[in-house]
Automatic annotation (TrEMBL):
Gene Ontology molecular function, alphabetical: GTP binding; GTPase activity; metal ion binding; structural constituent of cytoskeleton
GO BP terms: microtubule-based process
Protein name (database record): Tubulin beta chain
Coiled coil: none
Superkingdom of the organism of origin: Eukaryota
Organism: Blepharisma stoltei
Entries under PANTHER family matching the protein: TUBULIN (PTHR11588)
Length: 410
């Protein structure tokens, strides 16, 4: 079995993690005392990827919850997998340097690893706006890399609003985290809160309720992406395949999810709207108007009856080019089971030079704050040095330049 260990760190990481695990457990209607008449062999085969079997047909999540309070998902989370932390007060420095539980988290990860047959990687849900999700996550990534240098780490990362964040120092937290995300053998599924807002406002035509609506979508994306690791015979069936298919250029390791709720009535129109030249409204990060895709994949769920329509959409107009990528290069798979939260959905993953715009947004805000020396003493007081700021911002600028070079060279 190729197992994945999931960690959820901070308020946002735990809220999204919890919503995600609820979805996962709904996918297994035959465990923990529940019965189902259906044949679930297609999912049973890979049940050990995410779940630990405690006793016959009784499973818990292979999860480590790092949070200020134990709001666990009973009975699916084991109390031994909860690590209590103090809030890092929205300060990356406090999360990175001030944590007294970093070694305990790594010990827990090590003991979970030892119980695995063949670990395929770690997954981390977190946000970059607060101090724990940014700083403690950076520390944990660094320590995991020391301990398991060859293992893949896959981040499900919520980026703060790029204009009107909850707290003014968010651009510092994003920038200081950047070098820890942008490392070999990491992939980051990047979601911006403002894009979740826009999605609900424009696609669902209502004002979102914070954060329940956001987390509903973010968890649906996470379940959509990870369903390929949980169902047999799917595209990108393990982390390694996903990383090698979606990150042809190692330094471009940020992936943008795109979430779409599908209706049988408008299936073809919806697919034409999301897979077309330009910017799809369903992309969950801000991207440049002129962008070039370097890789893309899509997982459909609950669409089995529409296999023919989906195949014919991708097989028609095979000369069509979508943001510089031939349509025929988009890999897709259709998973039989319904997605729990909506009858039919598509979750795409895009690797695009357009991600430059997301990074530019935070870097500009970072410079605007840093130029005025705003709030710096809070960070210096926690052990962050001016060099840390400068090096992180430079690294971010280098990646922005890489995106520009790749755009110009394609
Ligand atoms: N989508 C979403 N975003 C959230 C949620 N909770 C907080 N955020 C965003 O995440 C950032 C704050 O991060 P938190 O996760 O609250 O902070 P933390 O990791 O607990 O860090 P500290 O509180 O400083 O210890 C802000 O940008 C919020 O807008 C949530 O449940 N869902
Ligand atoms: Mg918090």
């Amino acid at each position: 079995m190729r197992e994945i260990i999931h960690l959820q760190i901070g308020d946002c990481g735990n809220a999204i993690g919890k919503a995600h695990w609820s979805n996962i457990f709904l996918d297994y209607p035959f465990i923990n005392g529940k019965n189902s008449a259906n044949n679930f062999s297609i999912i049973q085969e890979k049940i050990g990827v995410y779940l630990e079997e405690k006793s016959n047909q009784n499973y818990t999540a292979r999860n480590i919850a790092v949070h200020t309070e134990n709001d666990s998902l009973n009975p699916y989370f084991s109390p031994d997998d909860f690590v209590k932390i103090e809030s890092a007060g929205n300060n990356w420095g406090k999360g990175y340097y001030g944590s007294e539980v970093d070694e305990y988290i790594i010990d827990l990860a090590k003991s979970k690893t030892e119980a695995c047959d063949s670990l395929q990687g770690f997954e981390i849900s977190h946000s970059l706006g607060g101090g724990s999700g940014s700083g403690l996550t950076s520390r944990v990534i660094e320590m995991l890399k020391d301990e398991f240098p060859e293992i893949l780490i896959c981040m499900h990362t919520i980026f703060p609003y790029s204009g009107m964040g909850d707290c003014l120092v968010e651009p510092y937290n994003v920038t200081l985290s950047f070098p820890y995300l942008h490392m070999p053998k990491n992939v980051i599924f990047a979601i911006q809160n403002e894009r979740l807002f826009n999605f609900i406002f424009h696609q669902k035509h209502r004002i979102p309720s914070f954060y329940a609506d956001f987390n509903h979508i973010a968890a649906a994306v996470l379940s959509g992406i990870t369903s390929s690791f949980r169902y047999s015979g799917t595209l990108n069936g393990d982390l390694q395949k996903l990383v090698s298919n979606l990150t042809p250029i190692e330094t471009m390791n940020f992936l943008i999810p795109e979430y779409t709720e599908l209706s049988s009535l408008w299936l073809h129109d919806t697919l034409s709207r999301i897979f077309r030249d330009g910017v799809s409204a369903n992309l969950l990060c801000n991207v440049d108007k002129n962008q070039k895709y370097i890789a893309a994949a899509c997982n459909f769920r609950g669409c089995e009856d529409y296999n023919k329509e989906i195949n014919s959409f991708f097989d028609s107009d095979t000369n069509e080019i979508i943001n510089n990528m031939p349509k025929k290069k988009i890999k897709y798979s259709v998973i039989e089971a319904n997605p729990n939260n909506f009858p039919m959905q598509a979750v795409s993953i895009i690797n695009s030079t357009g991600f430059r715009k997301t990074l530019m947004g935070y870097l500009e805000q970072y410079y605007a704050l840093k130029r005025r020396n705003a709030f710096l003493h809070h960070f210096y007081g926690e052990g962050v040095e001016d060099d840390d700021f400068t090096q992180s911002a430079n690294e971010m600028r280098d990646l922005i330049e890489t995106y520009e070079n790749v755009y110009n060279s394609l």
